[in-house]
Amino acid sequence: MSRAPHRISAAERRARLGRRHRLAPSARATTAVEAADAVIGLHATDAATVHLSACARLTHAAITEVERALYEGVSLVRLLSMRHTLFVVSEALAPYVAASTGHAIAAKERRTLVKHLLEDGNGLDEHWLADAESAILAALATHGPSTGSQLSAAVPALRTKITVFRGKKYETVQGVSTRVIRLLAAEGRIRRDRPRGSWTSSQFTWTASSPWPALAAEEARTELARRWLIRYGPATEADLKWWTGWTLGHARKALAAAGAEEVKLDDGVSGYVAPGDTEPEPSVEPWAALLPALDPSAMAWADRGFHLDPEHRAALFDYAGNIGPTVWWNGEIVGGWAQRADGELVWRLLSDPGQDASAAIEAEASRLSAWMGEARVTPRIRTPLERELAA
C-alpha cells in the first residue's frame, strides 16, 4: 500500500524563505555569488534591481561587492534566459541556464532577425549579419569595452535600418544595432560590462566573451530543476513551467529526472520538493525585508497565495502582472515601499503584522537607506502603491 504524500503547510513554506533565500539576518550571505545562488538568479531587466536584491541578502551590504562580482572577477553574469528575461546568475550555474533556456532563445532571436532582414528586400541576409557580427567583435578587440553608440560609430553596418511587418498596419522602420548586439549577447559571444554612470544605470558597455561550454539541454534542465526545487520547493509543475518558460512537457520531464518528491500543499494541490526534503525547516529569528520590484522571492511561483494576500495584488502589481517593491515580515508580503525624490524611503503596510514587525521593518529601511547613500532609484516597474508613495 503506497504511503500518502507528506503535507507541507503554507506556514512551513514561508519559514523556508528566511533561511534558503538568505533573508533572515543570521542566514545572510557573505558574497554576491552566494546571494544570487540562494535564489538561482537575480532578475536583471532593471539594473538597480540586481544590486537591491543582492544587498538585501548580504551581511555587509555594499555595491562594491556586487560590482566586483559582475565586472572584475565576472563570477556573476547576465544571461537572457528564463521567460525570455535577463537574469544575473553565478558563473558556475551559467552553462546550465544557457543550455536549458538561453540557447533556444538565442536560436529563435537569430531566426527572427534573419527573417526580417530577408523581408526587407535590400539584399540583407544571414551573410550580411555574419559580416556585421565579425565587425563588432573586431571593433571590441581594437577599442575595448564600448557602448552601443560607440559600436555603431565604428561599424557602419549597425547604422542600417530595415522595414519590418511590411504591408501590415503595424509596419515600422527599425535600426538593427540593438538587435544584432542583443543577439551576440544571447549567444554568449559578448557580455555587458560596466555601465556608463552609477550602478542604477542601464547604459552598459559591451566587451567580448566566450560561449558557455556545450551541455545537453535535457541534462541542463534537470540540473536547473533540481536547484530550483531546493530553493523554491514545494512548488507545482505550473510554477516551474511559469518560472522557466519551458513547455509543460519539459517541466515534467525535468522534475522526474531530478527525482522530485510529491507532497501535498494546504489547498490539496500536489507540489514537489527535492528528494527527501520534507523535514521542517530549521528555525531562524523573526525577520523583515524590503525587496525591490521583480525580486525572485516574490516572482518565482505562478501561485503566490502562500505568501501574498490576494487582496494586496491590485496595489503591488502593474497591469502586466509584475510585482513592485515589497515589504516582508517572516516570509509574507505585508506592504510596499518607495523612494522619494529627496531620497527618503517610505512604506505602507497593507496588514497589521504587530509592533515587533513594525520595528524590524523600520530598522531594515534604515539599513537600506544607509548603504544606498545618495543614490536615487525609480523602478521600471511602477505599481499603484509605489507611485502613490513616491509622489
Automatic annotation (TrEMBL):
The cross-references to InterPro entries, in alphabetical order and at most eight, read: AlkZ-like
**Pfam families, A to Z:** AlkZ-like (PF06224)
Specify the superkingdom.
Bacteria
Q: Which PANTHER family match?
A: LMO0824 PROTEIN, WINGED HELIX DNA-BINDING DOMAIN-CONTAINING PROTEIN
- Record-given protein name: AlkZ family DNA glycosylase
